[in-house]
Amino acid sequence: MIKRLLAATSIVTLCLASGASAAEKIEMWVRSGIGESFKKVVEAYNASHENQVAMTEVPFSELVQKYATAIAGGQAPDALSLDLIYTPAFAAAGQLEDLTDWAKGLPYFNSLSPSHVKLGTYQDRIYGLPLSVETSIFAWNKDLYKKAGLDPEKAPTSWEEIEANAEKIRALGDDIYGFYFSGGGCGGCMIFTFTPLVWGSGADILSSDGKTATLDTPEMRKAVDIYRSMVKKDLVPASAASDNGVNFLTFTNGKIGQQSLGAFAIGTLVTENPDINFGVTLIPGVNGGTSSFAGGDNFVITKGTKKIDAVKEFLEYTYSMDGQKVMAKYGSLPTRGDIADKVLEGLDPRMQVGIKAIEVAKTPYTLQFNDLINSANGPWATFTNAAIYGDDVDGAFSNAQSEMQSIIDTGQ
Amino acid sequence: MAGSGPGKALPVRRRRRHSQWRGLLYIAPAMALVIVFFVMPVLFTGWMSLHNWPLLGSPRWIGFNNYFRMANDARFASALRFTTYYTVIVTIAIFAVAFPLAIFVEKHRRFVGAYRTIIFLPVVVGLASASLLWVWLANVDSGFIGPALRALGLVEKSPNLLATFDSAFFTIIVMVVWKIAGFTMIILLTGLQAIPSELTEAARIDGAGPWQRFRYLTLPLMRRTIALALIISVTGSILAFDQFYIMTSGGPQNRMISVVYYIFNQSFVSFNLGYGAALSIALLAILVVISVMQLRLLRVGEDRP
Amino acid sequence: MILSKMNASMSLSRRRRERKAFRAESAYHATGLAIALFFLAPFAITLLASFRHGTEARLPPLPPWPVNGISLDSYRSLDTFGAGVWQHTFNSLLVSLATVALTVAVSVLAGYGFSRYRFPLKNVLFVLIIATLMIPFQSILTPLFIILARLGLNNSLFGLTLVYVTLQLPFSVFMMRNAFDAVPKEIEEAARIDGARDLKLLFRVLMPLVLPGIATVAIFAFLNAWNEFLAALVLLSSNEKYTLPVLMMAVRAGRLGAVNWGAVQAGVAVMTLPCLVVFLLLQRYYMRGLMAGAVK
Question: Which of C61, C125, C283 lies closest to B27 in CB terms?
Answer without folding.
Answer: C125
